[in-house]
Amino acid sequence: METSLFSLGNEERVRWRWFRFEQWRSVRGETQRAAACAARLETNLSINNQSIHSLSENLGRERKGKKGKEERYCIGFDSMTLGSSAAGSSVVVPRNFRLLEELERGEKGIGDGSVSYGMEDADDIFMRSWTGTIIGPHNTVHEGRIYQLKLFCDKDYPEKPPSVRFYSRINMTCVNHETGLVDPKKFTILANWQRDYTMEDILTQLKKEMANGHNRKLVQPPEGTHF
C-alpha cells in the first residue's frame, strides 16, 4: 500500500519536511547539510525505509528537458512552487523550504541576540504563524524594553510580505496606535518588498526605525502593556 505524506502524524510530517528540505539543498551542492539531516532522520524519525522510499518516489522525479538535458526537480507539498536545479537555470526556493531555512537561522540565533524569531505553533504544518522579539536600541526611549511581535506568512509568502503586528504596545510612526499593525505604506521594507527579504530583515529594520530621529524620543506606553 502506497504511503502518503498525509497519513503521517504532525511530528513525522515536520521531520519529513526537513528530510526533503536537506535533500533539495544537497542537489544544490550542500552535501554536508544533507548528511547532517540524514543522521537526524536516522535517529529520530519513526518512518521505516520502505515508507521513505515510497514517499521519495511520490515527491521526487527526474525528466528530460527539451534539449535532452536531465533536470531534477524537488516537488514540494501543500501546493508549493516547483524548483528546478538544472545547470544555468535560476532556482526558486519553494515556500516551505524557504521558511525552513528561516527557522533554522532563527534557532541558531541572530547577531547580538537583540532580534529573534521563531514559530508560534510548532504543529502548524503550513508554517504560517511566527513570533518575533526586539530589544530596544541603546540611547533611545526604547532602550532595555522587550517588544514582542506576531508575523503571519500567508500562502503567497515570500512573493508577498508577511503581516507584521506588535503585541507589545509601542509608539512608532509606522505602527497603528490601536491595533499594533505595522503599516506597509509607512515602513519601507514592506512597501518595497522583494522575494529575497526575510523576517529577520523586517525585525532588524524595525529596530533601526526605533532609533530614527522621529521615533527615538516619542513618549511610550507603560512597559509590559499589550495591544
Q: Strand arrangement, largest sheet? A: 4-5-6-7
Helix content: 25-40%
Q: Give a count of the beta strands, DSSP E runs of length 2 or more.
A: 7
- Rg measurement, Å: 21 Å
- Main β-sheet description: 4 strands, antiparallel
Q: Briefly note the structural class of the backbone.
A: alpha+beta
What is the oligomeric state here?
A: single chain
Strand composition percent? 15-25%
Silhouette: elongated
Please trace the helix and strand order, writing H or E for each element.
HHHEEEHEEEEHH
Alpha carbon gap, first and last residue: 51 Å
Discrete helix count: 6
Parts with pLDDT < 50 across at least 5 consecutive residues: 1-5, 42-89
What's the mean pLDDT score?
A: 76
